[in-house]
Amino acid sequence: MFIKIREKIFNLTDAIFDILYGIKTNGYYVNINPRAINLGYGPTYYIYLNKLYKKYPFESRDHLVDFGCGMGRVIFVAYRHGCKNITGVEINQDMYQMALDNTKNIMQKC
């Protein structure tokens, strides 16, 4: 019961952050292509990312590389926490395009 309530709260929080950032990183994406080597996309909760980046703050020389960046949530939160050298790698063209669209939107907000 507690896990379901926590998950609903986290999902609501994620939706609010996406609205504030002007991006879309919510939802799950499963690749149904049998020849694909990627398994799918499930975003990391904003709450966990914020805790991680607060505990381990970025220094000016740091460079974050996010393999399987999906729609770019990890990248955008890292940027908001001061990481200015970031590379996202994504093999799924649809997810890559979504990450590019999100990048345009978040750059307009910052």
Task: Label this structure with key terms.
single chain, mainly alpha, two-stranded parallel ribbon, 50% helix
* Average pLDDT: 87
Structural class, please? mainly alpha
Pattern of helices and strands: HHEHEH
Give the DSSP E fraction (strand runs of 2 or more residues).
5-15%
- By DSSP, the count of extended strands is 2
Q: Which regions contain 5 or more consecutive residues with pLDDT less than 50?
A: none
Q: How many helices in DSSP terms?
A: 4
* Number of domain modules: 1
Distance between the termini: 38 Å
In which order are the strands of the major sheet placed?
1-2
Largest sheet properties: 2 strands, parallel
Rg measurement, Å: 14 Å
Global outline = globular
What is the percent of helical residues?
Answer: 40-55%
Description:
The model has no long low-confidence stretch (mean pLDDT 87). The chain has helices spanning 2-21, 46-55, 73-80, 93-109; strands spanning 64-67, 86-89. The chain is globular. By secondary structure, it is mainly alpha-helical. The N and C termini lie far apart (38 Å). Helix 3 (73-80) links the parallel strand 1 (64-67) and strand 2. The protein has four helices and two strands, in the order H-H-E-H-E-H. It has one domain (2-109). The relative contact order is 0.18. It has a two-stranded parallel sheet.
Short structural summary:
Helix content is 50%, strand content 7%. With 110 residues, it is mainly α.
List the helices and strands and how they pair.
Layout: H1 2-21, H2 46-55, E1 64-67, H3 73-80, E2 86-89, H4 93-109
Parallel strand pairs: 1-2
